[in-house]
Amino acid sequence: MNVIHLKYPHQLNESEATTSYSLAIGFFDGVHKGHQAVIQSAIKKAKELNVKSAVMTFDPHPSIVLGGRKEKVFYITPLQQKINVLKELDVDTVFVVQFTSDFAKLTPEEFINFFIRELNVVHVTAGFDFSFGAFGKGNMETMKELSNGDYGVTVVEKLTDDEEKISSTRIRQNLQKGDMEEVHNLLGRPYEVPGIVIHGDKRGRTIGFPTANIQSHEGSYIPATGVYAVRILVQDEWYDGVCNVGYKPTFKNPEDKQLSIEVHILEFEKNIYGEEVVVGWYKRIRSEQKFDGIESLKAQIEKDKQEAISYFQK
């Protein structure tokens, strides 16, 4: 898959400038089932027209540049992760457009000239609610009206489950609650967080449950505190595990607000400090709690471990 970073005004090399594309366009945070419907439609159209399939996304999130959001923006799929998911969907090319103040000022006509016509896009596919151009003045009706027959347009209607739209907002809300089964359902795959194994306080091994202490990659969102059934990718192999996300209230001063992600990997003996890993989140087993001693903590961890084992056996 080819990844092309564009900034307004952009320069394309000769091969990029002469390739024709069927383009799916949107921010696509999460690349959830609704986004996948848009992207698959563009891929299907590419095959019909015998052109390359492409996805156009934007970085950073428009609200970071434009302001107007009180809460901190977090990504369901930070850029590199989004690119990895798009590769798995068999997209030929990804255009990553840098969202800048100058880009945000483009009129809908200018956006189409620079980012549709100049890229040799022969067909545009987007969701029913996609908007573009300064103040979001352009919509998919505008996209059709301004085409002058230069490109075709497909609008994909909202994808729902139980009458509710599948959306990035819903996924964020469920991540904040820790409902990983619902997140899995909306994404069409488990939620994943990449990271690196770092040294922790090594307390787990002293009580018979050694853990890998994970430092997540910047920009990743960590689900609600609690204990989860997870899978962890280590050296290209997936292992089942139990993950504790939280502040270790049994051992730590409640004023210490350092969040930790610790995975007890089942049937695993290796030393993996410094390894790049990916944590896949499947089910929240319980909330984080404070125990009155080591023995009650050990008994609960054993129960959590058995629950994770039976979950994955199902």
TrEMBL record:
Residues covered by the Riboflavin kinase domain: 186-313
GO biological process, one term: riboflavin biosynthetic process
Keyword Transferase (UniProt): yes
Superkingdom in the source lineage: Bacteria
Keywords for the protein's UniProt record, in alphabetical order: ATP-binding, FAD, Flavoprotein, FMN, Kinase, Multifunctional enzyme, Nucleotide-binding, Nucleotidyltransferase, Transferase
UniProt signal peptide: none
Name of this chain's protein: Riboflavin biosynthesis protein
